Amino acid sequence: MKGFVGPIGDDLPSLIAIMLAFTLFFAGLTFAMRTFNQKQRDITLMKGSLDISRAIIQEPVIKNLSSSEADSIADNNNLEYYTNFTEEFDRDECGEPGEEDENIIYFSFLVSREDHDGDAVLSPLRVCVWEPN
To answer: For residue 3, is it within any domain?
Structure first.
């Protein structure tokens, strides 16, 4: 019994290894879940933005940019969107100021729209979709 430290003291080296293993396991599990959740948000954002864009440009000649189908898609996927016909695209309308651009998806389309005289003209349509904070 000369080197006996006690019931915990003799098992201390093995307890340290076990605690380190548990820590590494749960850290890896947490990292995997965060990565999975981020990929799910990215997929939801991409699918929702494609569905919103399709709903807006489904008409052969676009008369207005308001679409109840696009609004319901955005509400169901917890997304917001902004559309604009002008040559200059106002990026301030897309998301919060200072928000990272990686969470905003931009699409550009060349579509036929009805001008003020009722004639069909080709015009660039820009759609941006983002997930609100």
So the answer is: no
* Structure-derived torsion over alpha carbons of residues 19, 22, 26, 32, reported in degrees to the nearest 10: 130
The verdict on residue 2 lying in a domain is: no
d(CA 124, CA 119): 16
In the block, which residue shows the tokens 């940019």? 65
Task: Note the pLDDT tens digit of each residue in 77-132.
Answer: 889 888 887 766 556 666 554 555 567 888 888 888 888 888 888 888 888 888 88
Q: What is the pTM of this model?
A: 0.71
Q: Are 126 and 108 in contact (CB under 8 A)?
A: yes
Query: Within a domain: residue 73?
Result: yes
What order do you get walking across the sheet with 120-130 strand by strand? Answer: 61-62, 104-114, 120-130, 80-84
Count of structural domains, the chain: 1
**Which residues are within 8 A (CB) of 89 and not within 5 positions of it... i.e. 6 or more apart?**
106, 126, 128
Q: What tens digit of pLDDT does each residue of 28-52 get?
A: 999 999 999 999 988 998 999 999 9
Range of the domain at 63: 8-130
Whether 1 maps to a domain, the answer reads no
